[in-house]
Specification:
Layout (H helix, E strand, L loop, with lengths): L9 H9 L5 H8 L9 H20 L10
Length: about 70
């Protein structure tokens, strides 16, 4: 569980990111993660940043980084 307030799993967050969420606000509206207390924001931001790095690596032809496991 990444977001305890709304019981949102890392898989649900990753699915929202894969579907196009690129900000914490996008995640809050898409899967409810980060929409309450904000305690999960650092983890959510890290997941967003890691996804952006993987996308950039793929776009540049470099080997992608492995996704975070929470």
């Amino acid at each position: 569980i990444v977001c305890s307030c709304n019981a949102v799993s890392s898989a649900a967050v990753q699915a929202a990111i894969n579907a196009g969420a690129s900000t914490i606000e996008d995640l809050a509206s898409g899967c409810s993660a980060g929409s309450c207390c904000g305690g999960c924001w650092p983890t959510l931001q890290r997941m967003l940043d890691e996804h952006a790095q993987r996308v950039a690596a793929v776009d540049s032809g470099a080997a992608p980084a492995q996704p975070m496991v929470a």
